Amino acid sequence: MRKFVRHPLALTFVALAIHSTFVAQNPKAPDFKQYPADVYAGKPAPLNLRSHRMARTYRTRIREQLHEQGINFAGRYTIVVMGCGTGCSITAIVDARNGNAYFPRELDGWNVEPGVYEFGDNEEVQTFRTDSRLLKIIGAPRLSADERWGPGGIYYYEWKNNQLWQVQFVRAKQAER
């Protein structure tokens, strides 16, 4: 006990080292409040079919979801999801101010194969909010046109300058088959 009284900071440093090791191994999930966005109150612009080559291809589905959902992401955007096969989706992000459609490479052919990865009960594949630039998505990204998939898990992206930037990744446990 006397040794700790002589060196009171030693105990503090040991506690901090243990705590920082634990935090590094168990990263806290990003919070939507950490990525705030001001919500646009103006009238949404019509879809700009010239903004991206795929906007014309998926125009009907995009327009339907723009009408049904309105602004639902990052203050002025609408996330639109289209199927591309079993457990596969393509996602567009449409700007309400100018109607431009963005098709982020990260979400081009997203795979969510039920029963392959273990996630929380009733977990949504995509989670996002109108007042936040954070997108949480579960599954595996398509890495190439020859159907190679990246690791499955929970991906956190920030929407910034009309691009997705990966904030964090939590690998999922493989489900036993």
Short overview:
The protein has 177 residues and is an alpha+beta fold. It contains 4 helices and 10 strands.
Number of domains in the coordinates?
Answer: 1
Summed up, the helix count is: 4
The N- and C-terminal alpha carbons lie at a distance of 54 Å
Number of beta strands: 10
* Element order: H for helix, E for strand: HHHHEEEEEEEEEE
Q: Major beta sheet, specifics?
A: 4 strands, antiparallel
Radius of gyration: 21 Å
Mean pLDDT over all positions: 82
What percent of the residues sit in helical stretches (DSSP H or I)?
A: 10-25%
Low-confidence blocks of residues = 1-5, 7-24
| Shape type | globular
Sheet-strand content, in percent, reads 25-35%
Mind explaining what this structure looks like?
Strand 8 and strand 9 (163-171) form a beta hairpin. Strands 1, 2, 3 and 4 form a 4-stranded antiparallel sheet that branches. Strands 6-7-8-9 form a 4-stranded antiparallel sheet, with no helix packed on it. Mean pLDDT is 82; it is low at 1-5 and 7-24. The protein contains 4 helices and 10 strands. It has one domain (27-174). It is globular, with a radius of gyration of 21 Å. By secondary structure, it is an alpha+beta fold. The chain has helices at 2-6, 8-25, 53-57, 59-69; strands spanning 77-83, 88-95, 101-102, 108-111, 117-118, 126-128, 134-139, 153-160, 163-171, 173-174. 22% of the residues lie in helices and 29% in strands.
